[in-house]
Automatic annotation (TrEMBL):
CDD domains: cupin_RmlC-like. It comes from the Bacteria. GO terms for molecular function: DNA-binding transcription factor activity; sequence-specific DNA binding. PROSITE patterns: HTH_ARAC_FAMILY_1, HTH_ARAC_FAMILY_2. Keywords: DNA-binding, Transcription, Transcription regulation. InterPro entries: AraC-bd (IPR003313), Homeodomain-like_sf (IPR009057), HTH-like (IPR037923), HTH_AraC (IPR018060), HTH_AraC-typ_CS (IPR018062), RmlC-like_jellyroll (IPR014710), Tscrpt_reg_AraC-type_HTH (IPR020449). This is Melibiose operon regulatory protein. Pfam families: AraC_binding, HTH_18. SMART domains: HTH_ARAC (SM00342). Residues 216-314 form the HTH araC/xylS-type domain. It comes from Blautia glucerasea. SUPFAM superfamilies: Homeodomain-like, Regulatory protein AraC.
Amino acid sequence: MKSYPNDLPVYSHNPNHNTSFPLLVLDVRRKVCNPRNEGFCMVHWHEELQFVYVKKGIVRFRLWEKEQELSEGCCMFINSHVLHYITEKEDCAYHSFLIPPRMLGFFDGSIMEKTVEKFSGDPLLAGRAFSSKSQEDQKVLMAVEHLDALYFAKDRPSHWEYRLSLALAKLWIETVDALETENKSAKADLSTKGTFFVNGVSRFSSIQKKDHERIRNFLDFVHGNYNQKISLEEIANAGSVSRAECLRCFKKYTGLSPYKYLQKYRLQAAAAFLETTDKSITDIAMQVQFPSSSAFISAFRKAYGMTPKKYRERKQELS
């Protein structure tokens, strides 16, 4: 059985990764992500540093096992390689800016690169919430608002990518200033408090870090083998733990049992196949390991509110 996928990545991948301007921006509204991204509505992680700017409504964030809600005008910073899940509490819209660390490091071996690595490589730092109600957070919020307006401007100014790069650097340095201000007091309490928020900063103890590595191993295995028959024991073996510990870990970090998470991932993979291939419903059902077409159609309708056929037709109408 393979350990890594050939058709779907373990990480939520950045399609711009190998381009000359690798910034990825996701526009999410009415539960639709544009452009489509496999990490949407799934527990996932990625190399990029992420800033989520809430444009409307209330957005619920889960970073590892910690949850927080942010409303319109607020922003969440999510660190590199942090397991997270973003969903809406009520009708909402938000923009996600996924920034490859190298865009903020300027060039290999630079002082700026070391600053980025200092924070992106900190296993105890998960993220930072910036609230529109906090005076201390206004510099970051002004920076992300400027970035957002520039990126989504109807009439792009000359040297648009250059201006975006400057806006990204401004947002990053304001975030670094905020993190450095709080860094010392947060680390001083880690040994006794474990997981907590200090002025919006989400941090974790070194003990919890082991749990984080374990759940990522589980998800690595599930993402890499979703199109084959896999058992709870095999998933548990991926993290070198018992089945009971596997169940506990899954529930704690994803809110789902291993089986329910696997089914959700299979349905998401099926949705991607419906959008991007001409494969029949039966072939897709078999590829994502449903026992029959009828079982697949029933599960898909329950998850997406429509049949696979209707889903494909709707996506074709929108494209």
